[in-house]
Design a protein that fits this description.
- The protein is mainly alpha-helical.
- It has 2 domains: 244 residues, no CATH class; 98 residues, abc type-2 transporter like fold.
- It has 15 helices and 4 strands.
- Helix 4 links the parallel strand 1 and strand 2.
- Helix 2 runs antiparallel to helix 8.
- The longest helix is centred in the C-terminal third of the chain and has 34 residues.
Amino acid sequence: MSLSNIYRLGLKELKSLTADKVLLLLICWAFSGAIYTAATASSQELHNAPIAVVDEDQSPLSRRLVGALYPPYFKLPQQITLAELDRGMDLGTYSFTLVIPANFQRNVQAGRQPEMQLNIDATIMSQAFIGATYIKSIALGEVGEYLTGTRESSETPIRLAPRVLYNPNLTGVWFGGVMEVINNVTMLTVVLVGAAFIREREHGTIEHLLVMPLTPFEIMMAKIWANGLAVLLGVTFALTVMVKMVLQVPITGSLPLFLATAVAYLFAAASIGIFLGTVARSMPQLGLLMILCIIPLMLLSGGVTPRESMPVIIQNIMLAAPTTYFVRIAQAILYRGAGFDVIWRDLLTMIGVGACFFTVALIRFRKAVSQTQG
């Protein structure tokens, strides 16, 4: 009888969801356009950066340096004068300007160490840092090859041979697209389940449920499976269509295994949503609580920056959040092709944390029900 009640209440939740056009539009956008926008809008790589060169030497070596700055990292360098430098940087016309002083080639051949000036527009900090490193590497390589005929430095005691795994071209789209899927799973699950509870209270239908032979457990489970199913369908579409087909991101691991772990995470995230729904008294209050909860879950769980780079106290606090374990599981499966033998510890811990949130939410829900009945 309990399973039947949960099933029928879940169908009611799905009908309520399909009647809410705004939430349906939010779900469709979150797992389609939002994935593409988040993955492609903010680039973490240096791509077609505008650069200008003030070549006061006009020597074969200086022209060689200018010729080494080519797409796709940089746009074709523009030759400007020293008087045009400040205005171009102030207007944002150039992200980098390289000043090659007079007698540069002569000083290099004489064994001196002439200085080149590199001006950087650091309003785009990530590209400024990467671009400065690229330009330095290019300049040193060209000067070394000009003097010795080879780019290998005889002064280096070791030779470093980097091997990049899982993302050999260091393409930021591969990371941003999948992480946006995980962030949207967290956001939508909490929003849908919390909003469903608030909607029952605001519309007065919670009293209709209370006069029926239903328990708070059944009402909670119905909201969890119905809204979780909608999010799970969106995740499947996002990974198979948007990530794999549109963004051309290779999924290394097992998609069914990831979806199975996503079901466990949906249970935990939905419990958080119900807890917030019992705390908030209206939809605006729920929105404010979500800002306080969802943003830390997204930023501090390891989906934006590595947890190892965070303070130890933040790492320990975030161990109480199921999002931390889901991010690790998702990265292990989708990026590294990990199997169940690798992720089972994080999976069990995530289920345990989710069960704790579910228990607290159930206690709060029962208290809210008793207050309503009183």
